[in-house]
Amino acid sequence: MLFNEILRLALSSLLANKLRSGLTMLGIAVGVFSVIGVMTVITGLRGSIESGLNVLGANSFQITKFPAINFSDPSTRFRNRRDITYAQADRFKEMMRGSAEVSLTLRRAGRRVSYLDRKTNPNVRLIGSDENFLSSRNFEISAGRNIQADDVEFGRAVVLIGADIVNRLFPNEEALGRLVRIDGQSYTVIGLLASKGTTFGENLDINAVTPITQYLEVYGRSFRSLSINVQARDQESLAGTQDQAIGAMRLVRSLEPEFPNDFEVFSNESLIEAFNNIAGVVAIGAFVISAIALLASGVGVMNIMLVSVTERTKEIGIRKSIGAKKKNILMQFLIEAVVLSLAGGLAGVICGIVGGNIGAMVLNASAVFPWGWTIAGLLVCSAIGIGFGFYPAWKAASLDPIEALRYE
Asked: Which phi-psi region, left, alpha or beta, contains residue 39 (left: φ > 0; alpha: ψ -120 to 50)?
């Protein structure tokens, strides 16, 4: 028999039992969907994280009271740490002068900026920082000037505002030099931040940046823990600068040599590594779930094929009696099993890619097409079809034609 004839017979047999074939393919599709969907989301997030972490600035790391990511240690351990005060951060900045560029930061979300009778939504992020904020966070000035060291020294009520704030408050007029109000305090607009869009769901164009000393004057110094961004001169000196910064921070925090650090140090690379660790755990979970689903689906394929062999015993006997060889019968039933598995796998791959990219877009990650996982998924489905379909196919091919013709 020609291969195309065997393929036609296999497909016609599957189409004759649409519901049974569809349910079998659904089980395989669910297993493939689970792993392809999860890996599509992770791949999209990984690409977005590696590009999005540029907001920390090149060759930089941060020192904070709390870790950037924490899933294991109890949060009370970090809450009980002492705050990083402005006095400590300012002394640290002075100690690092000449070795690295240091920026101090506090933030307060949910603010509203007003000008005359116009107001923004209450979603503005008010940031208290210093003259190094722009370089530490990869921002640029589109008009006006940056905060300067004397603005910080004298606590001047000046502010830099993001593009969305400018568009809302100053649609048809010049924003520089205008007085805006935030929480009842007046600020003079000295600079406009260039648009940066959104990263990880965070709109970077709704920032309002004021000198950190002015921020502390308005909101008080109690219960405030600063974030410190340290930017090394180049990539080669990053490790040495980080060691120097840890030593300087321990000194300003008055830590004894035997005491552990009561602050966290993290960089772009450490955040990416932490994400990869989390992604690895999630991927293992997805593999376990999909393996169980695919194993159950493989058993379903075998069961359906055994039922098919039983139902078509007389048909097999007739075909053998008119010259069909054992290998032809074996190939037909193997093709049926592989087609069932591949069709289910293809449906799972398509749903997984679509669902995964929808999930990635919800998380503000880039859409991707995971070629490697797609090919692997289809190969696994082919293996399931061959592995679980071989015994029914071999059983069908081994039937005695005389006994098969007697079968009722």
From this structure: alpha
* Cβ(393)–Cβ(337) below 8 Å: yes
Which spans in 104-162 are helix H? 133-136, 149-154
Query: How far lies 49's CA from each of 41, 56, 160, 188, 259, in Å?
Result: 12, 12, 27, 35, 34
User: For the segment 394-403, what is each residue's pLDDT rounded down to a tens digit?
Assistant: 888 887 777 7
**Structural domain boundaries in the chain:** 3-51+273-406, 82-262
Give the phi and the psi of residue 154 in degrees, each rounded to 5: -100, 0
| Beta strands at 185-193 and 141-144: parallel, antiparallel or unpaired | antiparallel
Residues of the chain with pLDDT below 70 are 1-3, 5-7, 9-10, 14, 46-58, 69-76, 199-201, 363-366, 404-408
Q: Is the pTM of this model over 0.70?
A: no
CA 299 from chain centre, in angstroms, equals: 34
Dist CA 386 CA 327 (whole Å): 14
Helix (H) or strand (E) holding 300: helix 268-311
End-to-end alpha carbon distance in the chain: 26
**Cβ–Cβ under 8 Å, residues 197 and 139:** no
The residue type found at 346 is: L
Residue 115's φ and ψ, nearest 5 degrees, are -145, 120
List of residues 6+ apart from 281 with CB closer than 8 A: none
- Asked if residues 127 and 107 have their Cβ atoms less than 8 Å apart, the reply is yes
What are the φ/ψ torsions at residue 106 (nearest 5 degrees)?
A: -130, 150
Closest CA to 215 of 106, 325, 352, 366: 106
Separation in Å, CA 347 to CA 355, 367, 378: 12, 19, 10
